[in-house]
Amino acid sequence: MSKFFACSVAAVLTLLWSIPAFAGSTIKPGLWEVTLQSSSMKNMPKISPEQIEQMRKMGVDMAQLQSGAIVNKICITKDMAERENLPQMNHKESGCEMKNQKRTSDGYTMDMICDGAQMKGKGISKTVFASDQSFSTTSEFKGTMQGMPFSDRTDSSGKWLSANCGSVKPIRDAMPGK
Question: Secretion signal: which residues (predicted)?
Answer without folding.
Answer: 1-23
